[in-house]
Amino acid sequence: MTIETPGKTPGTPAEGEIRDEDLQEGGLASDLDDDWDDDDEDEDDGLDMLPPPEAPASVPVDEQKTGFFAVIGAPNAGKSTLVNRLVGSKVSIVSPKVQTTRSRIVGIAMHGPAQLVFIDTPGIFRPKRRLEKAMVQAAWSGAGDAGDGLLMMIDAKRGITDDVRLIVDGLKAEGRRAWAVLNKVDLLAREKLLPLAAEVDGLGIFDRIFMISAENGSGVDDLADALAAIARKGPWMYPEDQASDVPLRFLAAEIVREKLFLSLHEELPYALTVETEAWTEKPDGSARIDQVVYVQRESHRKIVLGAGGRTIKHVGSAARTELQQILERRVHLFLFVKVRESWADDPERYREMNLDYPR
Ligand SMILES: Nc1nc2c(ncn2[C@@H]2O[C@H](COP(=O)(O)OP(=O)(O)OP(=O)(O)O)[C@@H](O)[C@H]2O)c(=O)[nH]1
């Protein structure tokens, strides 16, 4: 077992439907162009994938390497933060709340001649509700697909929690080994790191232990170097112009969900889902994105809208700004909030979330 320390000190319109712009004065609808109904619109787009932050250097096929790794861990360990940092752009949403990631998401990082493919997974815990079961199932299935290695992230501040033990027991039962990635070392006094690493080593399934801060990047390059070193010789598995396996229309819904997670409290973020219903390419190069936020109760809908539509307006505006940065063009975002009491028991919603429906 090797312990790797970071180089640096870790230092309505009607019937229950409301469009957010209807709640705004001169809101999003007003920045639509006059040619809104132009026939040239492409009405079924958003299926493209996110491009990488920069074009990878071209590498002859016989020098290319590929590694397929899954990132697993308890909720909130920092898995998505790490995958985003490795990829160099946001492929997976992040929030301070647990269980933000709901399905497995592939992030593709280029590291010299190596294409490192990461499967970001939902946090693993003891699920109770159907959606939770689907998420945990997706996480274990992602772990099963890690052809070249498994990274288990552990929040160094929290240490070895019940969820960490649950995952370790699950891996042991399958006879699997992993690399441990102790994250958030920026939050921990240096003298506590080595005892924690020894404790993690004592769990008996880790070949290497890394200490990183996914947030500030410390130790992440060393981890990427180590992964690139064990990547297999062979042609890259994804096109060079792709940073993720999720279509942009899915990413767009995720970004709205992230803003809802950041704006809403307690249980409400867990009681909603967001879907992109339509994606229209405008002749002027902008995109119109229509999304539905499904909530379970009328009282939830009121909270999501906020007084005078303030909450949904804030969410829409933050999401639109980020989408414009990602897409590098103007975005018109239309959010509808609908009550669907039983969306969490509807197989169609699971398909949209890219999750298998647990029976
Ligand atoms: N201080 C600090 N915070 C971090 C670090 N990495 C992640 N975080 C924060 O931890 C929280 C959870 O991060 P995520 O990346 O969403 O964690 P996750 O493991 O994907 O969470 P789930 O979706 O619950 O599975 C966010 O508020 C991050 O900003 C880190 O290295 N240091």
TrEMBL record:
Residue span of region Disordered:
1-60
Q: Taxonomically, which superkingdom?
A: Bacteria
Renumbered to this chain, region (G1) spans 73-80
Q: Which controlled-vocabulary keywords does the entry list? A: Cell inner membrane, Cell membrane, Cytoplasm, GTP-binding, Membrane, Nucleotide-binding, Ribosome biogenesis, RNA-binding, rRNA-binding
Q: Where is the composition biased (Acidic residues)?
A: 31-47
Signal peptide (residue range):
none
Region of interest (G2), ranges: 99-103
- Main localization of the protein described in the UniProt heading: cytoplasm
Please list the GO biological process terms of this entry: ribosomal small subunit assembly
| Gene3D superfamilies reported for this sequence | 3.30.300.20, P-loop containing nucleotide triphosphate hydrolases
UniProt domain Era-type G: residue ranges: 65-233
Q: Where in the cell is it found?
A: Cytoplasm; Cell inner membrane
Q: Where is this region: G5?
A: 212-214
GO molecular function: any one?
A: GTPase activity
Q: Where is this region: G3?
A: 120-123
According to its record, how does it sit in the membrane?
Peripheral membrane protein
**Per the database record, which ranges form the KH type-2 domain?**
264-341
Q: Extract the PROSITE patterns matched here.
A: G_ERA (PS51713), KH_TYPE_2 (PS50823)
What are the boundaries of the region G4? 183-186
| Protein residues bound to GTP | 73-80, 120-124, 183-186
Single GO cellular component term: cytosol
Record's subunit section: Monomer.
Which HAMAP family does the entry mention? GTPase_Era
Protein function: An essential GTPase that binds both GDP and GTP, with rapid nucleotide exchange. Plays a role in 16S rRNA processing and 30S ribosomal subunit biogenesis and possibly also in cell cycle regulation and energy metabolism.
What does the sequence similarity comment in the record state about its family? Answer: Belongs to the TRAFAC class TrmE-Era-EngA-EngB-Septin-like GTPase superfamily. Era GTPase family.
What protein is this chain from?
GTPase Era
Q: Which gene encodes it?
A: era
